[in-house]
Amino acid sequence: VYGVDxxxxxxxxxxxxxxxxxxxxxxxxQLSTHTLRGHEANIMAVxxxxxxxxxxxxxxxxxxxxxxxxxxxxxxxxxxxxxxxNDISYIPHSDTAISAxxxxxxxxxxxxxxxxxxxxxxxxxxxxxxxxxxxxxxxxSGDGKGHVIIWDLLLFxxxxxxxxxxxxxxTVAFSPDQRTLVTGGTDTIIRQWNFxxxxxxxx
Length: 203
Fold this sequence. Notes:
The protein is mostly beta strands. Helix content is 0%, strand content 56%. It has strands at 3-6, 12-16, 21-26, 31-37, 43-48, 54-59, 63-68, 74-79, 85-91, 96-101, 106-110, 116-120, 127-132, 138-143, 147-152, 157-163, 169-174, 180-185, 190-194, 200-202. The strands form five sheets. It has a four-stranded antiparallel β-sheet with strand order 1-2-3-4, with no helix packed on it. Strands 5-6-7-8 form a four-stranded antiparallel β-sheet, with no helix packed on it. A four-stranded antiparallel β-sheet has the order 9-10-11-12, with no helix packed on it. The mean pLDDT is 97.
């Protein structure tokens, strides 16, 4: 199991596995209610929509898939990345999502049509992770060379780049108040950064 997420109401959990499946779990009964099949390779990440109605998953099969969280039915397949998709995040207050890939790009997708809207370039290594601010205006992504890029999602452009870790960055996250962001890498260090200034606060 490589990724998990809880439904907004806290009643269900979805897990993403290297057996190519997703499973939805009832947290009260601790039983699986649905097994979601369709990916053709390891599934790297999964996320519930903010309203809980759908689920997005990202896979080594180079696709993102959209699922109905109630029935477990596959609703759409997003194609465009040329290598494995390592992370996925809904963009709040919009009908879009952003993905991170080994092809060194991030891509923004229409959830309504499944079409690619934008390609964000700037990383010089595989992109491992992505997160979006609660207002949907900025994203952060980490890569295999230890770099972290902050993106302006209104301008679809890089805002600044951090030399964050010695080695790959495996995870990135904004704080709910959007004042800080946290990164974790294979150098065994967790770093906290001031989002506005890009300065390191703690490690």
